[in-house]
Amino acid sequence: MFPLVLPLLAISTISLFIILITKQIRYGSGREVILNLFCDLKGRRHRWVTDPTLARRLLGSSSSKGIGIEHLLSFQAFRPIVSLESVNDSQWMRMKENFLTLKTHLPPLEKLAEIAENKTTQYLNSDQILLIDSPTLVKILVEIMQAWLFHGDSDPIPPALLSAIEEWRKEIAVKGRGDPNLKLFAVNWIQHKIRGNYYHVFEENWSHEEYWSLLLQPFFVSPAINLADIATTLASSEFREEFGLEGKKIDKGALEGLLLSGIRYNHPFPVLERWYPDGLKDGDQVIVDPNTHVFIPMDKIGREGGKVGEKWVAFGVGKRACGGREVAMTLCTNIFYPLMTHEKAGEKFKPWVGHAFSGRNNDQKETWRQTWFQVKLLVKILWRLVLHKE
Question: Sheet containing 45-48: which strands, arranged edge to edge?
């Protein structure tokens, strides 16, 4: 038996190490260790900023995210989508310009508000729908965006499209590889919708991934993921107690402030980043050293800001502030108002049911398969950084 002790001890030790590392990356201070290591392997300085005033300035003073979280993790997780949030430099400037062009062709926000409130109220009033859980909330979102973007389109939402969104949610949250076939289904679906509605905007360029991504990611995939996450926050006992929502009548005019608090409470981007190759100065005073990658833990700043946090904490600031914030707030306000005030909301609205794979609000219950995926991904990134060290 003695010869088996050492191998078993080694396996147990390695297993425990893997579990602790993956838990810490997501839930503890380990993310700082890992992200700092990414910078070290690229030969770059790293700096974590938690002061809100400085954080706001640094977010607004650079439009580059460098080689960090978005480049190493999110960009690949979104594939085959080219995420506007994950690209840099000339590609980001090109996609941002095209996104702004696309926005000029969208229907008015007033129409979005009407569709969102009517659709959500319809679900609440329906006797056939007993529960508005996380998957149902995603379906409501997709139906709303389809009707708004595609001029009243009421085609049934394909189950494969909703499944594809969950696959993206899983991979973005580093819980596993998303099913490529389901992702491809979503790509084909959006291209079909484009041909019948927006082909005149970019014509043959729509076939390029940079173009169709401008509709699929900002208007379907990301909002669906974020909406379910915000919903679980607003419905949580912790949030409702802190903001005194129990038994309180919610006024629609004041709902925006509550939604912003919900976004800050569990921020959709737990860590924002900016790359300063030349540093930043105020006259002779050095604010940021050259060759520095700045990390800003928005989840920490948002929590500490509490009820009085500013809007920039929710949507960022500067050139890379969220380009769809008006759409996001219109959508959220008119979905959550009925979900938080309707007479049937208390019995039906349970967004935590079926909610999984959130990058900002996980249950700390990774399976061995998910843990193994995280470890393999981490090793692969580290190896790539070592091979291409500057």
Answer: 45-48, 292-297, 271-276
169-198 confidence digits (pLDDT tens): 999 988 899 999 999 999 999 999 999 999
131-145, 181-195, 343-357: least confident range: 343-357
Whether the Cβ atoms of residue 19 and residue 371 lie closer than 8 Å to each other: yes
pLDDT of residue 5 exceeding 60, the answer is: no
Task: Return the number of other C-beta atoms located less than 10 Å from residue 61's C-beta.
Answer: 16
Is residue 295 within 8 A of residue 47, CB to CB? The reply is: yes
Q: Name the more confident of 109 and 25.
A: 109
Query: CA 325 to CA 296: how far, in whole Å?
Result: 20
Token pair in block for residue 89: 């430099």
What DSSP state is assigned to residue 220?
Answer: I
Q: What are phi and psi of 189, to 5 degrees?
A: -65, -45
Q: Which residues contact 110 (CB under 8 A, 6 or more apart)?
A: none
Signed CA dihedral, 236, 240, 246, 249: sign only: negative
> In angstroms, rounded to a whole number, what is the distance separating the alpha carbons of residues 317 and 270?
15
CATH of range 2-387; options 3.40.1080.10, 3.40.50.2300, 2.40.50.320, 1.10.630.10 = 1.10.630.10
Q: Is 341 helix (H, G, I), strand (E, B) or coil?
A: helix
**Is the overall model pTM greater than 0.85, yes or no?**
yes
Would you state the pLDDT for residue 98? 97
CB atoms within 10 A of CB 156: 7
What is the secondary structure of 230-247 as a DSSP string? HHHHHHSHHHHHHTT-TT
Amino acid at 389: K
User: In whole angstroms, what is the distance from residue 386 CA to residue 38 CA?
Assistant: 9
Q: How confident is the model at residue 359 (pLDDT cuts 50, 70, 90)?
A: low
Instruction: In whole angstroms, give the CA distance from residue 389 to residue 274.
Output: 19
| SS3 state of residue 249 | coil
- Upstream peptide bond of 80 is cis (omega within 30 degrees of 0): yes
Number of Cβ within 10 Å of residue 141's Cβ equals 26
